Amino acid sequence: MKNLFLKSLLPAVLALPVMAALPEGHPAPDFQAQASLAGKAFNFTLEGALKKGPVVVYFYPSAYTGGCNLQAHSFAVNHEKFAAAGASIVGVSLDSIERLNDFSADPNYCASKFPVASDADGKISSNYDIAVKAAAPGKTDSRGVEINHGFAERTTFVVTPDGKIAATFGGLKPEENVAKALEIVEKLAADRSKAN
């Protein structure tokens, strides 16, 4: 009977999303990185971005791959809604800054609406407890260019101006991920309005 119970429990456990990422309420590790906006590299700091309001920090596997293309496009399309809620967006991946210069300016993806930061050494991902998998040898992106960097697990954090993580979530489809981030920043904005 015990073995039957354990066998029935195993599929349920395996179906749960693996979330080792930093949890809600945890201080968000500050970071600075080379980032790209509209094809131009600059030095991004989380601390600087938080001075303007909440920041959606989203980790994604790689520029120019199916789900990441869709997620970036969805963030770009909804950029004005995030801005209306007082929030900014930054994507983080292990892509090189050169790849991100192309991706950030691409009208089909980031569309010059928000920056994407290069975590080429994986240090930012590590500080946020994001799992990173090695790319399969010979793996190419949607342009046919070989991907020679690790893939960060798709995980999103909403960070409040006091540097605390208001929400952590993963395991969602790219468009659902963006919708969830928007829902959270709009709730934060509504809560701020009530408090004033």
UniProtKB/TrEMBL annotation:
It catalyses: a hydroperoxide + [thioredoxin]-dithiol = an alcohol + [thioredoxin]-disulfide + H2O. Residues 22-190 form the Thioredoxin domain. Coiled coil: none annotated. Its EC number is 1.11.1.24. SUPFAM superfamilies: Thioredoxin-like (SSF52833). Thiol-specific peroxidase that catalyzes the reduction of hydrogen peroxide and organic hydroperoxides to water and alcohols, respectively. Plays a role in cell protection against oxidative stress by detoxifying peroxides and as sensor of hydrogen peroxide-mediated signaling events. This is thioredoxin-dependent peroxiredoxin. It comes from Methylomonas rosea.
